[in-house]
Amino acid sequence: MLRLHGGRRAGGKGGADRIELNSALFLGGLTPSIGALEAVKAQVKIPVMCMVRPREGRGFCYTAFDYDTVCRDALALVRAGADGVVFGFLNDDGTVDAARCADFSAASARKTRKSRRFSTARSTSCRTSLRRSTH
Question: Using CA atoms, how far apart are residues 48 and 53, in angstroms rounded to an integer?
């Protein structure tokens, strides 16, 4: 999250090596807008990773429609200049949805990283790709 303090940017100047951009932090962090991403990218030189989480509630448990939305949001954010995305997928019982994690990581065009909120998940079997695209 990039915070502005009296016109000064926090983040890169504070020693951060990347920014995790979210919206609606009071809801646990949701997908930021393309406009917010573009504004942040114009102000910082460090990588900007964007959270992909389409709605509040139910943690990271998503319907098929939600999953489709997350995939489309990730693609749009990467096309708009995101250096990567932060994500998470859980099953209804609180275990990691390894199939969706693997599918999403394989399809991702840039870096991906599991959300830190996964530390509360019952399983940690999700494979996360940390590769750069050659595209």
Answer: 16
Nearest to 87 by CA among 107, 113, 54, 55: 113
The CA-atom distances, in angstroms, between 70 and each of 6, 12, 37, 99, 130 are 34, 27, 16, 15, 18
* DSSP letter string, 11-80: SGGGT-S-EEE-B-GGGT-BPPPHHHHHHHHHH-SS-EEEE---SSSSTT---HHHHHHHHHHHHHHHHT
Residue-wise pLDDT for 54-107, tens only, equals: 888 777 889 999 999 999 999 999 999 999 998 889 998 889 999 998 888 876
- Closest by Cα among 24, 4, 25 to 14: 4
Which residue type is seen at 124?
T
Express each pLDDT in 4-56 by its tens digit. 433 445 555 667 888 999 999 888 889 999 999 999 999 999 999 999 998 88
Predicted model pTM: 0.72
